[in-house]
Specification:
Strand content: under 5%
Largest sheet: 2 strands, antiparallel
Radius of gyration: 24 Å
Structural class: mainly alpha
Distance between the termini: 64 Å
Number of helices: 23
Number of domains: 1
Shape: globular
Number of strands: 2
Helix content: 55-70%
Length: 513
């Protein structure tokens, strides 16, 4: 008993772990500076296609400039931290849906007759394919998945863990070209033109291999969740308010009809505004871009910049009209109460986000990640591997790199100039090389606290964790390890089988030159 109590006291809250990581990053930056650690990054001029080099050094946080950076930028970094504002805004919309009763009615109806495995698979599948929304998928899917399990009378932590696994292990998988893929393609084309000035990249180049991978990973995550994760979590006690079976009344039905009509009208309006070939349509797009996905999600796109607000307003509208129809919202005071419902008790989540933003910002300041990845790129090109060993090597180099630099584009900018020509010389297409890179990212995306949206996973776990011994940061990572290992193994197997058989990876896309 005493040993158990001692272990409970030794368990670090995620906030304390982040504080320790901040201190460790400061110390390591000082040590690496004293050691003179540095690396060289290769770059390609997109116009002349000539190589240039940039010397990367560690920026010391123990120096005067480092200390000044910490004290002068911490507040600004916290305010500008996208997960902070996105989470608060999305929770407003979720609060309206939950407080009005829309979520309880709709999700109870959805899960009542559906098998547990089916519900889990659908959540995971949607999480995997949600990559087309970019990083905002974390803000939407994790809270909603928790509520789906809650109203399905299961532990909300299962939904959070499974959804996060789907989002991270599926981060490099998509039916269509995403905005991230489009940015990566630009770097791939530049690297390929070193050897082939006429190289072209079709947007359908890897649709076949992605289709197989999406369903494979969704199935694997579902099985791991039901066979492993469910058994590792503490027994879930259903709240007394949720024990009784929901009885669907005329008011509930009327509320659902009202919300469905309002939601459909809202969706049709925005579909019209993002459809460029309709008269007066496409007003929310960035028409300076070439690919449609870039028009939709580029930095200058009205739709992309306001996407969180667009989704939040959708949630508010369907929740509000449900409340009007079901008479759970009778006056303006009732409506105002719904707006702040999901924001109750998120003080600890805001503190988590504060320290996460601080940790990520000072880590990026040090350049440690860039030095590690550029060193891996140089090591990669020094090894004369070909065929399957070369594929396996890039897969693991990408997995390791993702732990230190989660951003896909930031990694690929460093890796592509040397890796694309290496693979082309080995007879492997740039398209397949990019697929290997994207699959490798999936292995460790959910295992690094440096990923900005990892803190949303932590915050939601903290919110729904009712056990006496709270889940620590390391335990939250531990839940993701089986997903990463098994999904990583499956994705690597798919790559090897595809390469050996020589199947087309998509329309106008092959693995072998």
């Amino acid at each position: 008993m005493k040993v158990s109590n001692l272990k409970d006291k030794m368990t670090l809250h995620p906030i304390m772990t982040l504080i320790m990581l901040i201190g460790l990053t400061i110390v390591i930056s000082g040590i690496l500076t004293l050691m003179g650690v540095q690396s060289v990054q290769y770059k390609i001029n997109p116009n002349s296609l000539e190589y240039s080099t940039e010397l990367l050094k560690v920026d010391n946080l123990f120096s005067f400039h480092g200390i000044k950076y910490i004290f002068s930028s911490t507040v600004a970094n916290f305010v500008a931290f996208i997960p902070l504002s996105s989470l608060i805004i999305i929770l407003i919309g979720i609060g309206v849906m939950e407080k009005s009763g829309f979520l309880k009615t709709s999700l109870s109806l959805l899960t009542r007759k559906m098998k547990k495995n089916t519900v889990t698979f659908l959540i995971v599948f949607v999480s995997v394919i949600a990559s087309f929304m970019g990083d905002l998928s974390y803000i939407i899917m994790i809270p909603v998945s928790a509520l789906i399990f809650k109203y399905g009378k299961r532990n909300p932590l299962i939904g959070i863990i499974a959804s996060f696994a789907g989002l991270t292990c599926g981060s490099g998988l998509s039916f269509f070209i995403t905005s991230i893929d489009s940015s990566l393609i630009s770097e791939t084309i530049i690297g390929a033109k070193i050897l082939d000035p006429n190289f072209r990249f079709a947007t359908t180049s890897f649709i076949f291999i992605m289709l197989v991978s999406i369903f494979t990973i969704s199935t694997a995550i579902t099985i791991i969740t039901e066979k492993y994760t469910v058994n590792k979590l503490d027994k879930y006690e259903i709240p007394e308010t949720d024990i009784e079976e929901l009885k669907i009344t005329r008011k509930n039905v009327r509320g659902l009809i009202f919300s469905a009509i309002a939601g459909i009208i809202y969706i049709l309006f925005f579909i019209y505004q993002i459809t460029p070939w309709l008269p007066g349509g496409g007003n929310l797009l960035d028409n300076s871009q070439g690919f449609y996905i870039d028009k939709l999600f580029s930095y200058n796109s009205f739709f992309s910049n306001g996407f969180v607000f667009v989704v939040t307003m959708f949630f508010v509208i369907i929740g509000f009209f449900y409340g009007i129809g079901a008479k759970t919202i009778k006056n303006n005071q009732d409506f105002v109460d719904t707006l702040g419902h999901s924001l109750d008790g998120i003080g600890k989540a805001l503190v988590l986000i504060f320290f996460a933003s601080t940790f990520i910002s000072i880590y990026r300041y040090t350049n440690i990640g860039e030095i590690i990845v550029s060193s891996l790129a140089r090591l990669f090109t020094s090894l004369n591997f070909t065929g399957i060993p070369l594929i396996v090597l890039l897969f693991f180099v990408t997995a390791i790199s993702t732990f230190f630099i989660p951003s896909s584009l930031s990694k690929w900018v460093i890796l592509a100039p040397s890796i694309i020509p290496t693979f082309m010389n080995a007879g492997i297409t740039p398209q397949f090389t990019q697929v290997i890179f994207r699959f490798g990212e999936c292995v460790t995306m959910g295992l690094t606290p440096l990923m900005a949206y990892f803190v949303i996973y932590l915050a939601m776990i903290d919110k729904y964790d009712t056990s006496e011994k709270k889940i620590s940061l390391f335990k939250s990572l531990k839940y993701q390890i089986p997903y990463s290992v098994i999904c990583g193994g499956l994705l690597l197997l798919i790559l090897i089988v595809w390469y050996v058989i020589g199947l087309p990876i998509g329309i106008n896309g092959t693995s072998i030159l």
